[in-house]
Amino acid sequence: MLEEAGTLDELRDMLGLCTRCRLSEGRNKIVFGYGNPEARLMFVGEAPGKAEDAQGLPFVGPAGRLLDELLAGIGLARKDVYITNVVKCRPPGNRDPLPEETETCNPFLAGQIRLIRPSIVCQLGRIAASVMMKRSVQMTKMHGQRLIGPGYFNVPVFHPAAALRTPATRGLLVEDFANLKKYLDEDQAPPEPPSPEPEQMGLF
Ligand code: URA
Questions:
Q1: Does residue 97 line the site of ligand 1, with CB under 6 A?
Q2: Superfamily of domain 2-186
Q3: Which residue pairs from 10-17 have beta carbons closer than 8 angstroms and sit at least 24 positions apart in sequence?
Q4: Helix and strand tally (H, E) in the chain?
């Protein structure tokens, strides 16, 4: 059914006023995603926070301001990339999303990836990286690496919110964004997507 969506707007319409999981009970606005539907670089964070839930847009709070700075540092702006989260609704009290919530939302993220066809998906933080790569990702070991994914490269980086808490992490993020720029400039062909489309299999 979701694979019938031919545009991001159609996919968003299929999400509707979603009540597929319990996150719908406490949310104000669904945060579907924002940016260039033809972006080569896509960012996936964990979940909307308070500011995002109020505005319906991803990364518009303090972590988002740092993300804007990091993008500007490599000559990019929001309009050049696509930004979303593994779950589209704010978890109560900003708790981590539960496995059943990420699983329920997964087809929409997979649909966004299918329609945008980015060459690089950059996971912002351990949770997004672990959900998308289906294993427990240790960010200290894996951040900034270009890893082969199903039809694109995964590049996990620290969450910008972590850099707001720990200044040393900010330097690592600056380095990893420089790596992202290098990967984009190298323009290495992304790996072939699996067949059938990941969305149909319910996998990334
Ligand atoms: N943190 C996230 O992971 N996503 C947002 O959209 C905002 C903050």
A1: no
A2: Uracil-DNA glycosylase-like domain (3.40.470.10)
A3: 11/108, 11/111, 11/112, 11/115, 15/88, 15/108
A4: 10, 6
The burial class, CB within 10 Å (0-12 / 13-18 / 19+), for 204 is buried
Question: 49: Cβ below 6 Å to ligand 1?
Answer: yes
Ligand 1 pocket mutation, candidates 59, 70, 84, criterion most atoms within 8 A of CB: 59
Cα-to-centroid distance, 142 and ligand 1 (Å): 20
Q: Would you place residue 1 in the very low, low, confident or very high pLDDT band (cuts 50, 70, 90)?
A: confident
- Which tens digit of pLDDT belongs to each residue from 86-138? 999 999 999 999 999 999 999 999 999 999 999 999 999 999 999 999 999 99
Separation of alpha carbons 98 and 23, rounded Å: 10
Handedness of CA 17, 48, 21, 12 (dihedral sign): positive
Instruction: Name the residue at shortest CA distance from atom 7 of ligand 1.
Output: 59
Please tell me the predicted confidence (pLDDT) of residue 71.
Answer: 98
CA of 123 to the centre of ligand 1 (A): 11
- pLDDT tens readout for residues 133-190: 999 999 999 999 999 999 999 999 999 999 999 999 999 999 999 999 999 999 888 8
pLDDT higher than 70, residue 204: no
Provide the residue ranges of all domains of the chain, joining segments of one domain with +: 2-186
